[in-house]
Amino acid sequence: MHGFANPARFLRLARWLTPLLLIAGLVVTGLTLAWALTSAPAERLQGDSAKILFVHVPAAWLGMGGWSALAIASLTELVWRHPLAAIAARAIALPGAWFSALCLATGSLWGRPAWGTWWVWDGRLTSMLVLLFLYLAYMALAEAADRDAGNGGGGQSRIPAIFGLVGAINIPIIHYSVLWWNSLHQPPSISVGESAMAPVFLYGLLAAVIGFSLLFGGVVLTRMRAILANAQAEARLRRRAMEQDFDDFGKRDFAEQDNA
Amino acid sequence: MREGLDHWPFILASYVLAIGGTLLLVAQSWLVMKRAEARRERSRHR
Hints:
The structure holds two protein chains of two kinds.
Chain A: H1 7-38, H2 53-80, H3 85-115, H4 123-149, H5 159-167, H6 170-180, E1 190-191, E2 194-195, H7 199-259
Antiparallel strand pairs in A: 1-2
Helix pairs in contact in A: 1-7, 2-3, 2-4, 2-5, 2-7, 3-4, 3-7, 4-5, 4-6
Chain B: H1 8-45
């Protein structure tokens, strides 16, 4: 892992991996969603509204998976001081927030025809809403910390990393909420090694998860490259300004000696 | 399943939101990256 601690090595890898992930993600997601809209069968109990599954479930997994990755990056930053870990955590925050918001919105759009209501304050929905607020708070905290540090987003402060780690406590709460509390939301249909879903839904869902995950990975790499480029430009400009100050100081010193 | 509700407006709204929002996220991230890399290049030659 420390092999990738070198930003130059990371950039060499990211330059070809970013377009690859984005293009593959667009193709897989596009084909899967086109199939889901036109050819996926209606579900026995929920009818056509079950088609929302193909956007709702990947969004939920990526919202939760995003924070898990953010927490791992935060831990890596705190323990090993990995230079790219803080950048990775910051890059994950916006796509993670987007997929959490998408999960809530599509869940609400699914809930209206399936449950007869847009929203209920039960454990699953509320803990997912908390996850969205955690992402928004993390982004505000990281932005404030980077502005104070004046490093163009490279991440020096440990406060966002501690927040990222503490926020991870919400992930098992979301996962087990449907088992711990009474909920309108159904319990998990897929667990390790077994599935209660018909194969046509299961394979379609798997393709949608892969497609959206490729896009998520591509967006994270894109945002990491942006943060790195800004930090490098900032560092270069600061160095130039210091050299300029030093030159000006030297010239003034010489001029004063000449006058004396 | 609630009877009497047409499911398709809900399905289409979900897909439009998912596809539109994700494409916006990809495009915005790409533009931000290109702008930042151009800034880094400018700082190199300044």
